[in-house]
Amino acid sequence: MPLDAAEPLEALLPRIEGAPAAEAIAAYRVWLAANPASPQRFAAWFNLGVVLSAAGDRAAAMIAYRQALALKPDLHQAQVNLGLALEAEGRGDEALALWTAALQPDDARLPLLNHQGRLLESRKDYASAEAALRRSLLIDPRQPDVVQHWAHLRQKGCLWPLDGGGVPGLTSDELALMGGPLGALALTDDPVLQRRIAEAWIARKVPPAPERLAPAQGYRHDRIRIGYMSSDFCRHAMGFLIAGLLERHDRSRFEVFGYCSTDEDHSDLRRRIVAALDHHVPIGHLSEEAAARRIRADQIDILVDLNGLTRGARLGALRWKPAPVQATYLGYVGPVPIPELDWMICDGVVVPPDQARHYAPRPLPLDGLYQANDDSTPPPAPAHRTNEGLPEDGFVLACFNNFYKITPEVFGAWTRILHGLPNALLWLTEDNATGIANLRAAAQAAGIAPERIVPATRCDPQRYLARLGCADLFLDTFPYNAGTVASDALRMGLPIVTLAGRSFASRMAASLLTAAGLTEGIATTLDGYVATALRYGRDPAALAAARRVLSGGTWLRTGGNAEAFTRRMEAALSAIRL
């Protein structure tokens, strides 16, 4: 491009806007060389850094950002971008140090604090991340995404009270509505509030599409074309549950498509899932509209979304209505209120008839347990307590749920149980250091020795299953129950005590126990939950009777029977086909 190197920077910018990266980079460098004393040099260096970064030359971009900061130390945009480049290089400590020491006016602190919080959260330093995001909210409380992360950080780190004493400038109702749909499942068992929180999130994040793609009258295929859409066709809890269903679909009646935005993990499970699909269709590289149009081109009769409101969801594609019938299943166990979804696959226990009206989309109860399971994996070799750091003669209360599901009320019930069972210990997943420290502190405050809280390190799936066999009793969380973990416990013959509430998430373990024929483990009040656990802990005969119910492969014949589940799912899908 013609270039007058002496012209002001603002005269250069319109001429290089939209130019190829190589030309823009050359123009900035010529301008910088020709204007050694210009007060605009900091801006040119910053812009050069942006172009270099977009072109993939991260090392040169970092040099440019440092040059900009040398000329203007309070240029927070350069501090943010340089920190992001350092983070991308795996130099997270340097990024945090840069953002922490950055010079900036008060109104520019938000992106620096928010990036600090995001990076610290990714490193599981939840206490520091929460502190950074709270400082951001004290400057501007009306940041829904920041509120969502801050609130969920408090849940994951067991930083109680969960509302942190509130956020100045936000009412408690506003704080709850900004808290995000995943956190809502562990916040309340009220499906009405869960739906309001989901609606607020969708309104911010997923606008309606401009048109509906699928024909309203549906198609007339000889076989029902069912499409499963997921970001979790891999070594993920959903992947472990769904594999058996995909393999067992009756191919004389169903043609199975998998719309996959899963990151490749090269696992045996992923290879198995992909092999179980008649058509594996990668859509991770596609826009929401392009993904929807691909689904429409395949003339899918029923599209089953396996993410819901979880990470990796393709709700934008669903809003184009690429299939005449669309259902949500398994990934998110709460309301997913977008009008383009027609059904929420469930069962009559997790969504009782008196609660059905509170859900969107409309509940579609299966004839039996809602949860798919895989019964093809051989049982693991037994684990031994001594190898897991457990005493041979103690009473082991286990809960391998994620820490964000542990509420102050449930933990208070656990300490009551520990007081009533002096020989018992509580065996938890080592989810994060912040959570372990806070749970031990809460135990000590309740008069329980902190060493009675025993963390179990993360491990491979077979060892995790074997570990469940080392425990005496599984204590469930509320209002967000165990799902996959509860079915794993039953598979390993481990009795469960659960508290059933009003919401889907708070009734999952009740559904699993009902399928297994062990409903005596279901409580409906917190006092009843404590009493049931104490009865099992104090009465060896009661515990032995519960174990007998689960012995001899009971779970694999009942709730874990993949063949029987597939037939029930197929009956439901056939009923909703247009």
Low-confidence stretches: 1-5
- In this structure, how is the largest beta sheet organized? 7 strands, parallel
Radius of gyration: 27 Å
Taking strands numbered 1, 2, ... along the chain, how are they ordered across the largest sheet? 3-2-1-4-5-6-7
Structural class: alpha/beta
- The beta-strand count equals 13
Going by CATH, what is the homologous superfamily of the largest domain?
Tetratricopeptide repeat domain
Distance between the termini: 59 Å
Number of domains: 3
Number of helices: 25
Note the main attributes of this structure.
578 residues, Rossmann fold, 7-stranded parallel β-sheet, disordered N terminus, 25 helices, alpha/beta, globular, 13 strands, Serine Threonine Protein Phosphatase 5, Tetratricopeptide repeat, 6-stranded parallel β-sheet
What does this structure look like?
It contains 25 helices and 13 strands. It is an alpha/beta fold. The protein is globular, with a radius of gyration of 27 Å. It has a seven-stranded parallel beta sheet, covered by helices on one side. The protein has three domains: 9-205, Serine Threonine Protein Phosphatase 5, Tetratricopeptide repeat (Alpha Horseshoe); 224-375 and 564-576, 3-Layer(aba) Sandwich (Rossmann fold), CATH 3.40.50.11380; 385-557, Glycogen Phosphorylase B (Rossmann fold), CATH 3.40.50. The chain has helices at 9-16, 21-34, 41-54, 58-71, 76-88, 92-101, 109-122, 126-139, 144-156, 172-177, 181-185, 191-205, 237-248, 268-276, 288-297, 315-318, 408-420, 433-445, 461-468, 484-491, 508-516, 526-538, 540-550, 554-557, 562-576, and strands spanning 224-230, 254-260, 279-282, 302-305, 325-328, 343-347, 362-366, 395-399, 424-429, 453-456, 473-475, 496-499, 522-523. The N and C termini lie far apart (59 Å). Residues 1-5 have low confidence and may be disordered. Strand 12, helix 21 (508-516) and strand 13 (522-523) form a beta-alpha-beta unit.
